[in-house]
């Protein structure tokens, strides 16, 4: 009887030890399927490093995970700079593709503008010296007035150049004859004056300082540049 009791006790003890070992140690299959535990702050730091927001996000003294940070200012600045450069390139490309206006179109764009005293003198010289000529000839006359004013050898204003004694035959006593201001000739002269003053079109006589009508031959010993319209131009 005592042997049987000891055997039963031994069996119970053996079962208890086996059950304890089973609970304390998971099966090998469970170990293979389970993912290793990673602290929350380590996961957050790894994500921060991956997206470039911060090399490391330290936790505070309470052990809480820090809030996500925004993109660095340097990234925003670079992105903005890139956008500005793209806009500049697009604008430059659009300008390069824009059709070049003819002299006639430029003159038409500027033929209705208001005139101050200086532009009145420049347009007046174009009107009286070259009205009815091709626009290239009118532009060449305007170029001479502008070049003289810049040269230092003549008066420094358009009116001073045009009204200088003995230079332009249409000037009488320092005054202009009447101008038909409602005429197409005057509108063209105004447009030509603005185009020349703003240097919006090239001329064959960009550096000319003198001209005379083709019908006369003054025998000037000057450098002849070109014949444009009804005038011959010199430097």
Structure description:
With 235 residues, this protein is mainly α. The protein has a domain at 103-234: Arc Repressor Mutant, subunit A. Helices cover 52% and strands 6% of the residues. It has a 3-stranded antiparallel beta sheet, covered by helices on one side. Strand 2 (224-228) and strand 3 form a beta hairpin. It is globular. It starts with a helix and ends with a strand.
Sheet-strand content, in percent, reads: 5-15%
Low-confidence stretches at least 5 residues in length (pLDDT < 50)? 1-50, 52-63, 74-78
CATH architecture of the domain at 103-234: Orthogonal Bundle
Biggest sheet strand order reads 1-3-2
CATH topology name of the domain at 103-234, in short, is: Arc Repressor Mutant, subunit A
- What is the approximate shape? globular
Residue-averaged pLDDT:
75
Alpha carbon gap, first and last residue: 145 Å
Question: What gyration radius follows from the Cα positions, in whole Å?
Answer: 46 Å
Going by helix content, strand content and strand pairing, the class is mainly alpha
CATH class of the domain at 103-234: Mainly Alpha
The biggest beta sheet is recorded as: 3 strands, antiparallel
Order of helices and strands: HHHHHHHHHEEE
> Percent range for helical residues?
40-55%
Looking at this protein, list some descriptive labels.
mainly alpha; single chain; three-stranded antiparallel β-sheet; 9 helices; about 240 residues; globular
